[in-house]
Write a structure and sequence with these properties.
Layout (H helix, E strand, L loop, with lengths): L1 H28 L5 H11 L5 E6 L5 E6 L4 E6 L4 E6 L4 E5 L5 E6 L7 E4 L3 H15 L9 H9 L1
Antiparallel strand pairs: 1-2, 2-3, 3-4, 5-6, 6-7
Length: about 160
């Protein structure tokens, strides 16, 4: 009788171990490589924003979104759900990584999204950096001294 109980307990443990590894493997496979999913989810979060272009990271865990009015957005896989973030002008800092294929980005309004984002090529990383650059210098002539503004108007 004792052997049967131990066999049943052993079978239950094996079943739970198998189920746990399958769930972990499914979480690893979940990514944003499907741009159609990204368009749908970002459109749900921000229905009034028109998407112009998408750029996925190399691992598919994040997609940067260029919007119609030169704003930018981010859609990120947060393990159990997808998080969408509209990047406000002047509220992001970006630095190139050592590889040249990535960006280390700090979101001032959403620190939970801060991180290092690697892309498939340096061209893709620079394109996203330009989107972000266009996003945080959106206020024209903000840092120009008054004499340089008048000098540009005279030309």
């Amino acid at each position: 009788m004792g052997i049967i109980v131990w066999c049943v307990l052993f079978a239950i443990v094996i079943f739970f171990a198998f189920a746990a590894t399958r769930m972990a493997a499914q979480n690893k496979e979940d990514s944003l490589h499907d741009t159609g999913l990204a368009i749908i989810e970002f459109g749900r979060a921000f229905p009034n924003e028109a998407i112009r272009q998408l750029q996925a990271t190399e691992n598919g865990q994040a997609i940067f979104v260029r919007l119609h009015d030169n704003k930018a957005g981010l859609m990120r896989n947060m393990t159990r759900h997808f998080s969408c973030h509209l990047i406000e002008p002047g509220r992001v800092r970006a630095v190139s990584t050592e590889t040249g294929r990535g960006l280390t980005i700090e979101f001032l309004d959403a620190p939970s999204h801060n991180g290092r984002f690697e892309f498939a090529s340096p061209k893709e990383a620079s394109e996203v950096a330009l989107w972000l650059l266009g996003n945080y210098i959106a206020e024209p002539d903000r840092d120009l001294p008054s004499d340089s503004i008048s000098a540009t108007n005279k030309q």
